[in-house]
Write a structure and sequence with these properties.
about 600 residues, globular, 13 strands, disordered C terminus, Glycosyl transferase, seven-stranded mixed β-sheet, transmembrane helix, Nucleotide-diphossugar_trans, Glycosyltr_2/OpgH_subfam, about 50% helix, Spore Coat Polysaccharide Biosynthesis Protein SpsA, Chain A, glycosyltransferase
Length: about 600
């Protein structure tokens, strides 16, 4: 049993509608809120959210505090709320700009290389084989599309898979590897060892140098090995390249294992803001981000920018490198398209350790890119597209601001614990009412945009609560990433373990969370011992402890529930699962043999009628 979409889910996944016959080569867009009434509703809620946020800032600055007392604590609180208001403004702005493209019918004359990166030590071979079997069924002329596995291993894992897959009808599969080749395994740069960008660039260099062996291609499409493409994957992306100035097309990610894994379900919901709001908002600027899976990019553009950019978040860096340059043929700036069509179904992190590793890599990459000055340099080169410049600066600041907010809260906790909350001269009930309205309209705006969520795997009427929760509990990870970046701690590319390669969690997984919980508990103890913690102020350290420990508590509750459900003596199996609510657990309950999730994918993505 695997990925199956019924008619309702398929309609939800294909957001942009049917391909259109058109002679116009320029891509046109429609508002996500197709009716004027819904757009006006979004505008109304956005204005209320921003208005109340600003009003709260003014009220706090002029009426909430006693001047001259604990100015450090006051400044910290004000800066934190100013940053929070920035988030509200950016969400409101992108929600109002959100657009989806009109899909032109794809031509069959593009030569396409579909590439799949694979790391045998971290990724599941059975998962790769399932992907290749599905990729062979992609609806596109067989002589125009070839599949490549960019293998980081010696071929012992991948070669037998390719031999089996090539016996089946469909597109041909080839393997390219840099294993054991020093020229393609450098300490830094384009061909950096043990990095995704190094792997892709090495394989592309071979393709470009030896077209007589591998062929020549116009478009490169990319998938991670856990993403199963739908048959429409090529035709619903390639149509946008009718516009000569479209450099790349990006698609959304969705976690099929969200139906079986608690962590994947929460992580799936967290992606909503980026894929449904931020990326569709970027369509207004023709500048969405190139995501590292489910994408298509012109080969000529990659050659122009020197391949995939060296970074632990190579997709983001490559996006800015491309969008800051011009098409040499037309002398117009390159642009991009984001299609909200869900054309590939992936697997998300199924354990807290995998999720934390993923979030750490994304946040480190974004923060380093900002602090290194590369963001400033590339956005200055995008001066022809001021809307795109504004969008990228807002989007790239997310992880850094979340980290700063967490550290500001900790600093304010120290000030309050040592010197007391004497700076505050406001009735807590008044504060609760005012801040409550601010939070209400922010959540309302978030919920209004949930209507356009394309994921078929999230529960209906969830209102994105899971995603909000994951963003909050990830704050300690973002703070740690910010500190490590400022201290210039070395960082390397890490693959998020998937399928049978995923390992379980332990208390060590939550070491950062436990450290922060201990910090807030210590500050609470100091404040109580000094008499600086009235009842109304105790909510802040208690909230900090709750946020820090929430992932560990969920993990333990999940393990406890599984142990109670299993027959006596099978508790060790739960430890191996690491708290993942996948079908391995269901099969154990049925007394069947445990089989890795990835080996049970179907031969095709089917529509149930």
């Amino acid at each position: 049993m695997g990925v199956c979409l019924d008619e309702t889910e398929l309609e939800k996944a294909f957001v942009v509608g049917e391909p259109q016959e058109t002679r116009d080569t320029k891509i046109s867009f429609r508002r996500m809120q197709e009716s004027a009434g819904r757009w006006i509703l979004t505008l109304f809620v956005a204005l209320l959210a921003v208005g109340f946020s600003f009003a709260y800032l003014v009220w706090q600055a002029y009426y909430g505090y006693v001047a001259g007392v604990l100015t450090v604590g006051i400044a910290l609180a004000f800066v934190a709320d100013l940053l929070r208001t920035t988030f509200t403004i950016s969400l409101s702005w992108t929600a109002l700009l959100a657009k989806k493209p009109v899909l032109p019918r794809a031509r069959d004359d593009h030569r396409v290389a579909l590439i799949v990166t694979f790391v045998p030590s971290s990724e599941d071979a059975a998962m790769l084989e399932s992907l290749l079997q599905e990729a062979q069924r992609i609806d596109y002329p067989a002589n125009q599309l070839e599949i490549f596995v960019f293998d980081e291993g010696d071929g012992g894992v991948v070669n037998p898979i390719i031999q089996r897959v090539n016996r089946l009808p469909g597109h041909r599969v080839q393997r390219i590897s840099r294993h054991g080749q020093r020229v393609y395994n450098q300490p830094k740069g384009r061909f950096e060892a043990k990095t995704k960008h190094g792997n892709i660039n090495a394989a592309l260099d071979k393709i470009w140098r030896h077209p007589e062996v591998y062929g020549t291609f116009d478009i490169m499409m990319g998938l991670d090995p856990d993403h199963i493409p739908m048959p429409e994957f090529a035709r619903r992306m390639l149509g946008y390249f009718r516009d000569a100035n479209v450099a790349y097309v990006a698609g959304p990610q969705s976690y099929e294992n969200a139906r079986r894994s608690v962590v994947a379900r929460l992580a799936e919901s967290q992606q909503f803001v980026f894929h449904t709001v931020s990326q569709t908002g970027a369509n207004a600027a023709r500048a969405p981000m190139l995501v590292g899976t489910s994408y298509a990019v012109r080969m000529s553009v990659l050659q122009q920018v020197g391949g995939i950019q060296p970074s632990i978040t190579e997709d983001m860096a490559t996006s800015l490198a491309i969008l800051s340059r011009c098409n040499p043929a037309t002398r117009k700036q390159w642009k991009a398209v984001y299609t909200p069509d869900l054309l590939a179904h992936g697997e998300g992190p199924a354990t807290w350790g995998a999720f934390f590793k993923q979030q750490d890599r994304w946040s480190r990459g974004a923060i380093e890119y900002v602090l290194s000055g590369k963001l400033l340099w590339n956005t200055l080169r995008m001066w022809r597209n001021p809307l795109g410049v504004m969008h990228y600066n807002i989007m790239m600041s997310f992880y850094g601001i979340m980290g700063v907010l967490w550290l500001l809260a900790a600093a304010n906790m120290v000030v309050t614990a040592v010197w007391g909350p004497t700076a505050i001269a406001v009735d807590p009930s008044h504060w609760a009412i005012f801040y409550g309205w601010v939070a209400f309209f922010q959540i309302t705006l978030y919920s209004v945009m949930r209507r356009y969520n394309t994921s078929p795997y999230e529960e209906r009427f969830s209102y994105g609560i899971y995603g909000m929760f994951m963003s909050v509990v990830s704050a300690p990870i973002y703070a740690a990433a910010l500190v490590k970046t400022l201290l210039r701690r070395p960082v390397g590319f890490s693959v998020t373990p998937k399928g049978a390669k995923a390992s379980g969690d332990s208390l060590f997984t939550f070491r950062i969370n436990i450290m922060w919980a201990a910090f807030y508990a210590a500050m609470l103890g100091v404040a109580i011992s000094l008499g600086h913690m009235p009842l109304a102020s105790m909510s802040w350290p208690i909230m900090g402890i709750a946020i820090a420990l929430a992932p560990a508590v969920l993990w333990r509750c999940e393990l406890h529930a599984q142990r109670r459900a299993l027959p006596a003596g099978d508790g060790a199996v739960v430890d191996r699962l690491g708290g993942s609510l996948d079908s391995q657990f269901e099969e154990l309950m049925a007394g069947q043999e445990t089989v890795p999730t990835s080996t049970r994918r179907p031969a095709a993505l089917s529509v149930l009628t």
